[in-house]
Amino acid sequence: MSLVNFTTREITCKIVYYGPGRSGKTTNLQYIYSQVPNERRGRMVSLATQTDRTLFFDFLPLDLGSISGFTTKFQLYTVPGQVYYNATRKLVLQGADGVVFVADSQARQLDENIESLQNLHQNVLEQGVDIRGLPMVLQYNKQDLPRDLVLAPAELDDALNFRSLPSVPADALRGAGVFETLKAVSAEVLRKLSQGSAGREG
Amino acid sequence: MTTTVVELWTQEPLLRFVGQASARLVVVMTPAGQVLAQHGFARAVDLMGVAALGAAIMASSAALADLVGEPRYGTIFHAGQRHGIHLAALATPRGPLVALTVFGRETSIGLVGFFFEEFAAALRSAAPAQPARGPILAENFEAELGQSLASLFRR
Questions:
Q1: B-chain residues within 8 Å CB-CB of A10?
Q2: pTM for the model
Q3: Which residues of chain B are within 8 Å of residue A94 when distances are taken between CB atoms?
Q4: A127, A130, B34, B133: which could join B30 in a potential S-S bond, CB 3.0 to 4.6 Å?
C-alpha cells in the first residue's frame, strides 16, 4: 500500500515485476538502473543465487521528482520466477501498489506464462486483495527473437490479457518497451491514488 | 546525523531512543518496507534499500516460524565485527510496524534491547489509528508523470 505524507508531501509506491523464470524481470530493473542518473536512484539490491537467478528479490528505489506537488518515489521489486520459490513471491507481493507481469513471448513458454499468471492471481487473493482493483500492466518481452519463435502481441493478448489491461511489447535486454512499461504502470498506480482508493495516509 | 520522519508522531520516541541506546541507524517501517521514520541516512534512496532488506528479513523469519509451528519471532539480532543489527516487529494502533536498529561498539545489544522496549511502548502509545483518505493527486497528473519519467530516462 502506498505511503502518503501530506506534511512533507511525499508519496512512496511499491511496484512488483512478476512473471515466470527467465522472462526478463531482473533485466527490466537492470536496464532502468543503467539509464537513470545516479542522484535519482539508490543502489540496486539483488538477492540472487551463484548463477544469478533471483533467490528472493531484486530491489531498485527511484526518485521520480514532483508530481502534483508531491515528491514521488517508487520502489521497484522483482520476484523469483521459478515455481518452487512461491513462498518468497508471496512475501515480496505484500503491500504492492502495482504489478508488471513480464511474459516471455516465446511460443514454447506460453504454458509457463499462464501458470505464473494463475499463481499471481492466487497469491494476490490469499492476501485478501481483489486482483481487479490492483493496477497492473502486461509486458510481452523478447519480441526481438525470430518471428517463428515468438507469439505476436495480439496472440499474447488473446492468451493472457482477459481484463484488457495495458500491454507493452518489449526487448528488455536492449531497453525497448522498458520505459513505456514503467510509465504505464506508474500511471495506473497514480491514477488509483488520484481516485482516492489506495494508499495509507501519513 | 539526520533524522527525518514521514509521520510526526514517531519523531519524539525516535529521538529519545537514538539518544538513550546510542544507535547509529534506525528505521521504522511498515512490514512492506515503507519508511515512516529514520535516523542516520543522508539519502532517501539508500534508506529504501535498507528498509526493503529489513522488511524482507522479518517477513522471511515470520514465514519460517509459521512453517515450523513457532510463534512469530518478535526480535532478531545479528552480531557483527563492528556493527550489530537489532530487528523487531511491533503492533501499534496504526498497524504492524518493523524497527531496524544498527549500533556500534559504543553500546551493546543489552542496552539496545532494554531501550527498545521503551521505544516500542512509546510508539504504541503515540500511534494514531489508521485514518480514511480521499483523493490525493490532481486528476491531470499524467502530464507531470510523463515529464518526470522522461527526465528520469533522460529522454
A1: 6
A2: 0.84
A3: 31-32, 59
A4: B34
Domain A3-176 sits in CATH 3.40.1190.20? no
**How many residues does the structure list for chain A?**
202
Residues 6 or more apart in contact with residue A42 via CB below 8 angstroms = A60, A61, B43, B44, B45, B46, B47, B48, B49
Domain residue ranges of chain A, discontinuous segments joined by +: 3-176
Alpha-carbon distance A76 to A41, whole Å?
A: 11
DSSP state of A171: B
Q: How far apart are CA A99 and CA A14, in angstroms?
A: 9
Architecture of domain B3-152: 2-Layer Sandwich (3.30)
| Average pLDDT, rounded, for chain B | 88
Domain boundaries, chain B: 3-152
* Minimal CA separation from A107 to chain B, in Å: 31
> Which neighbouring-strand residues pair with B95?
B92
- Nearest-CA distance B103 → chain A (Å): 22
> What residue type is assigned to position A159 of the chain?
A
